[in-house]
Amino acid sequence: MKVVTIEYPMYFGAKPDIFKKAKELRKMETEAEKILWSHINKNQMLGMSFRRQHPISQFIADFYCHQLKLVIEVDGSIHELPENKIYDIGRSEILNDYGIKVMRFSNTQVMNEIESVIKSIRNVIDDFLEDVANNQSSEALKSPVSGDLGGKSVTLKNNTYA
Fold it and tell me: CA 52, CA 62: separation in Å to the nearest integer?
């Protein structure tokens, strides 16, 4: 029997074991992840859809929005260790190579400064929507079909947000 693999672009080649691990992590979210999720789920962030514990290649993102190609990480104190900081930098660089932007917040930021965290995320979304609007305007000048992006991708101004 031949095994058929279907590649979904939003997973960037993630293997079955990564999907299994992501499913397990969804059952063990931290308090900070619960708080952030309550603010970004159900398209609350200007209509953008986020996914929890989303597989991307060999990684699992805490939160991922495919429309924005944006990962949001909520980091506990373990990420302050030098070896984990180095790992996180490398991980972000690999995600950036996929065209994915990364925002990182500490558990403390999410739990004590949620409005500031939400504002930072909204700023990224606003930049994206502004880029789409500008792209649509320039495309409308070239094409009789107004608002058609013609399958072009939109890139945020920076690859990594903090």
Answer: 6
Residue 24 maps to a domain: yes
Let me know if residue 3 belongs to a domain.
no
How far the first Cα of the chain sits from its last, in Å, is: 48
SS3 content of the chain, % helix, strand, coil (to 5): 50, 20, 35
- 113 close to 35: Cβ distance less than 8 angstroms: no
Q: What is the pLDDT of residues 27-75, one digit of tens each?
A: 999 999 999 999 999 999 999 999 999 999 999 999 999 999 999 999 9
State the Rg of the chain over Cα.
17
DSSP result, 12-52: TT--HHHHHHHHHHHTT--HHHHHHHHHHSTTTBTTB--EE
The secondary structure element, H or E, covering residue 120 is: helix 114-142
Bridge partners (DSSP) of residue 72 are 63, 103
Q: Whose CA is closest to 117, among 127, 126, 106?
A: 106
**Assigned domain for 127 exists:** yes
What span, in angstroms and rounded, lies between the C-alpha atoms of 114 and 108?
9
Question: Which one, of 26, 23, 55, 52, lies nearest residue 39 by Cα?
Answer: 52
In the chain, the number of structural domains is 1
